Amino acid sequence: MGRSQETFGKKDNEKKRAKKKTEKEERKAERQANAKSGAALEEMFAYVDENGNITSTPPDPTKKRVIKDEDIRISVAKQEDREPEDTQRTGSVTFFNSSKGYGFIRDSQTQESIFVHANALGGLTINENDKVTFEVEMGPKGPNAVRVRMGGATPPPAAAPAAPAAE
Asked: Where are the annotated segments for Disordered (predicted)?
């Protein structure tokens, strides 16, 4: 007579699988027995009170506030809402490495050190201690000087043509 092909390990694994299956069926039956099928619609509602907290009771209608659609702001403030900034700044070059093409400008108002790259110079050659005017834009690593020009002060506005002298 031949021996059975099943080993002890196979029989043990089969018993474990059968046990897991029966436990799973028992848990399923228990969930179905404890389920709140047909619960009232009001029991499933959740409300938000005047402070923004979730509650199970409806809000008090006397505390209701009416909010106009125009008062709700979701995006960035419009240009007209912000006060205009003076983007033109003056400063002096504290460091510039022409071989690597970058340097730093110290802002004369805030004493802040601002990064400048050779691409923002527009072909201009600057050296340390030069007085420059520039604008600041935010880059990925912080403020960058752009539109850099020589000269410590902004040029005066063009003068109006002189009126002819009265004779």
From this structure: 1-40, 77-99, 145-167
